[in-house]
Amino acid sequence: MQDAYVALGANLGDREASLKEAIRRLRAEPHLELLRLSPVYETAPVGYTDQPSFLNMTIGLLTSLGPVDLLRRLLAIERDMGRVRDIRWGPRNIDLDLLAYGKVEMDTPELTLPHPRMGERAFVLVPLKDIWPKEVPFPWEKQLSAMSLREEGIARFAARGDSE
Ligand SMILES: Nc1ncnc2c1ncn2[C@@H]1O[C@H](COP(=O)(O)OP(=O)(O)OP(=O)(O)O)[C@@H](O)[C@H]1O
Ligand SMILES: Nc1nc2c(c(=O)[nH]1)N=C(CO)CN2
């Protein structure tokens, strides 16, 4: 079994319901065991800014799938939830990114690990730090401490991703 971290984001429709539905689908996946769910944050859009604010969170899991198969399951969940791709970094009802898979480093057109843009993204690093094992140094500590969370426009939205 390998540990892996996934980022979830939603900024269209009922954002909270979309996160919950994605979590439900991840729980129903064979070969995956969800271990930790971060709090949910409301975050200002980054990259393409003329769009609604996002809800973001992260999940830590264990899996017997390899990294590419895990990514394909995440993309299948996005697709099954009706995700439409048009504008790069544009609005989406659900986004599932694979942040890290064990200590694997790879760079192929299909999958780059760790996720190449995560070190610049407070909306990823803040909820990832929340669930990172306390006994393991957080690899993005420097980037995170250099960020002003107020300027990044990130605020706690709910206690847990699966809270009712
Ligand atoms: N670590 C990764 N996690 C998710 N997708 C990845 C990763 N590395 C490469 N990709 C590829 O990126 C493609 C586009 O992903 P997606 O549409 O979610 O990008 P995005 O969320 O708009 O932007 P960003 O990649 O900056 O988060 C996917 O089809 C996938 O093959
Ligand atoms: N706040 C926020 N901004 C974004 C997000 C996101 O999840 N949250 N995702 C993007 C594409 O991956 C682009 N911009």
TrEMBL record:
Main enzyme class: transferase
Gene Ontology molecular-function annotations: 2-amino-4-hydroxy-6-hydroxymethyldihydropteridine diphosphokinase activity
UniProt keyword Kinase present: yes
Catalytic function, reaction form: 6-hydroxymethyl-7,8-dihydropterin + ATP = (7,8-dihydropterin-6-yl)methyl diphosphate + AMP + H(+)
Domain 7,8-dihydro-6-hydroxymethylpterin-pyrophosphokinase: 88-99
EC number(s) reported in the record: 2.7.6.3
InterPro entries: Hppk (IPR000550), Hppk_sf (IPR035907)
Swiss-Prot/TrEMBL keywords: ATP-binding, Folate biosynthesis, Kinase, Nucleotide-binding, Transferase
Record Pfam families: HPPK (PF01288)
Pathway: Cofactor biosynthesis; tetrahydrofolate biosynthesis; 2-amino-4-hydroxy-6-hydroxymethyl-7,8-dihydropteridine diphosphate from 7,8-dihydroneopterin triphosphate: step 4/4
Protein name as it appears in the record: 2-amino-4-hydroxy-6-hydroxymethyldihydropteridine diphosphokinase
Organism: Cohnella hongkongensis
Lineage: Bacteria, Bacillati, Bacillota, Bacilli, Bacillales
